[in-house]
Write a structure and sequence with these properties.
Number of strands: 10
Shape: elongated
Number of helices: 14
Order of helices and strands: HHEHHEEHEHEHEEEHEHEHHHHH
Low-confidence stretches: none
Length: about 425
């Protein structure tokens, strides 16, 4: 163990001396590795952070959840909107019938949403998201309440003028969100008491696809109806959540049969509703970002290949310059594996230096982008480990041939060389 440590220490000293002595050659060789690691780790970190943010937004729609709507949420350039626009919208009555048809372990919620204002004293917020929901909503969307309490079953049933307010809305209207609890605010066609403030959710790249609770108020379906909102024209949908042991496909199959039965569709008639499973969105997001990751890998690998050739060139020159020294070491008893390990350690060390420079650049850039765009880009421990592994692999790959040449040298011939 001590001998190995001495070899490692002397190898590192020689590598540092070699790098310092040939600065231009070192820079050109490390540049490829630095750019390669910068591209790979930069893309992986950025894409991973973007994907996590979007997946969190998708999960905010509910896990193992299906949205029954007239619209198919799978968009695209050729989206056939004319096929869906004349479909009937989901109705509250349908959600009640569906509640009776499915099992007790399946949650069914009717939701419709719109935008209006909320006002307190001289402060007024426009275009606030109103979400009118039925009582099983919190089984699908387990909101964490920062201040106050949640809505009760009685408030849902009676349409009591009680609401939950998003954190940013409460912050704007009351300064301190905690002050919102118990206050009476003006809504469209009425007043309501704020009984709870939803914990701050943060921004999501999913945009309007998520619930965006920070800029919302949540109230009962019956209270929304009292304010004369017509559910037919305010994005009505039925939200169904299955148990954890029930697959998304099985849930969709059960809902399809129930909906076709309720709407009295014949065997040859097409569905006049869409079943939008959240798991499908999650898979689509993962597939999209896998392709982006692949592009980053391709760019980075090209740079790493260039860097590997540069490091291999350094090692060939190093072997040639140290040939007498290698011969002397072998003459006094150094084994082939010792010489081999010495040069492989040196090439790996050089490559790791290039990788560290690339990582430092990625971390600096991530900090800058995070502050500019108000979006956290993080370099995870897994990605750091991957960077180290890549550098080690490239270093060994670049140094293996020069190391083998050095290990096989004849000591007499090597000592006599100039």
């Amino acid at each position: 163990m001590r001998k190995t440590f001495q070899i490692l220490l002397s190898t590192l000293k020689l590598a540092v001396q070699e790098l310092y002595k040939n600065k231009l050659r070192t820079f050109l060789s490390l540049f490829g590795v630095t750019i390669g690691i910068f591209c790979i780790i930069g893309v992986l970190s950025t894409v991973s952070s973007l994907e996590q943010n979007i997946q969190d937004g998708v999960k905010s729609l509910g896990t193992n959840t299906v949205y029954i709507d007239k619209w198919d949420y799978q968009g695209g350039a050729d989206y056939p909107w004319w096929k869906y626009v004349n479909r009937p919208t989901p109705k509250m009555l349908e959600s009640k019938i569906l509640r009776e048809k499915v099992g007790a372990n399946i949650n069914v919620v009717f939701n419709f949403s719109t935008q209006s204002f909320v006002e307190f004293e001289n402060n007024k917020l426009e275009n606030i998201n109103y979400h009118g929901v039925t009582d099983e909503f919190f089984e699908i969307q387990p909101l964490e309440i920062q201040y106050g309490r949640s809505l009760t079953k009685m408030e849902f049933d009676r349409g009591t003028p009680s609401i939950l307010m998003g954190y940013e809305n409460a912050e704007f209207l009351f300064g301190n969100p905690e002050r919102a609890v118990g206050k009476e605010v003006n809504l469209r066609k009425g007043k309501a008491i704020v009984v709870g403030v939803i914990k701050k959710q943060g921004s999501s790249l999913l945009g309007g696809g998520g619930w965006r609770f920070d800029q919302s108020i949540v109230l009962s379906y019956n209270l929304m109806k009292q304010m004369l909102f017509d559910e037919r024209f305010n994005n009505p949908k039925i939200i169904v959540k299955g148990p954890e042991n029930m697959s998304s496909d099985a849930l969709k199959g059960e809902l399809k049969g129930a909906m076709r039965s309720m709407r009295r569709l014949g065997p040859t008639e097409e569905d006049d509703f869409a079943l939008n499973a959240i798991s499908d969105f999650s898979k689509a997001v993962s597939s999209l970002f896998s392709n982006v990751n692949m592009g980053g890998w391709m760019i980075g690998l090209l740079s790493l290949i260039v860097g590997a050739f540069g490091i291999a060139n350094i090692m060939f020159v190093t072997v040639r310059e140290r040939t007498p020294y290698i011969g002397l070491k072998k003459a006094i008893g150094a084994k082939k594996k010792t010489i081999l390990m010495e040069f492989l350690l040196e090439s790996s060390f050089i490559c790791i230096i290039g990788g560290m420079i690339g990582l430092i650049l990625v971390i600096i850039l991530s900090k800058i982008l995070s502050s500019v765009f108000n979006f956290p880009i993080t370099v995870s421990g897994d990605i750091l480990g991957l960077a180290f592994g890549i550098c080690l692999f490239i270093g060994i790959l670049a140094g293996i041939i020069p190391a083998i040449i050095a290990a096989r040298m004849d000591p007499v011939v090597a000592i006599r060389s100039k």
